Amino acid sequence: MSREATSDVNIKGYLIPKGWRVLIWARAIHMNPEYYPNPEEFNPSRWNEYTTKAGTFLPFGAGSRLCPGADLTKLEMTIDAYE
Ligand code: HEM
């Protein structure tokens, strides 16, 4: 996901000048052990009773550009599981 700064932005001391593009690297967030312990482990049970922290789960993006196919995708996955 990439975004363009429409004005100078200061985030935690880092200046992102107007016109620069910023890449949101969702994989780095999803593989961060601070949010997902032992992220390399295949462990579907990690989602049991798991409450995501805002901004740490972005498979379909977020905000006004959230993937409009998200619900369709999840529905299709559910159907495949029971065929
Ligand atoms: C596993 C399946 C899918 C994944 C992981 C996925 C992921 C994403 C992500 C991360 C974005 C946000 C991009 C951004 O913010 O720059 C996005 C946008 C979008 N997705 Fe998906 N997507 C999936 C399936 C689909 C399907 C099935 C459709 C349509 C039937 C779809 C249509 C779109 C469209 C049109 C956008 C652009 C929305 C906008 O810019 O306003 N996606 N998708």
From TrEMBL:
Required cofactor(s): heme
InterPro entries: Cyt_P450, Cyt_P450_B, Cyt_P450_CS, Cyt_P450_sf
PROSITE patterns for this protein: CYTOCHROME_P450
Source organism, top-level taxon: Eukaryota
Pfam hit, one: p450
UniProt keyword terms in alphabetical order: Heme, Iron, Membrane, Metal-binding, Monooxygenase, Oxidoreductase, Transmembrane, Transmembrane helix
GO molecular function, one term: iron ion binding
Gene Ontology cellular-component terms listed: endoplasmic reticulum; membrane
GO BP terms in the entry: brassinosteroid biosynthetic process; brassinosteroid homeostasis; sterol metabolic process
Subcellular location(s) of the protein: Membrane
Topological relation to the membrane, as annotated: Single-pass membrane protein
Similarity annotation: Belongs to the cytochrome P450 family.
Name recorded for this polypeptide: Cytochrome P450
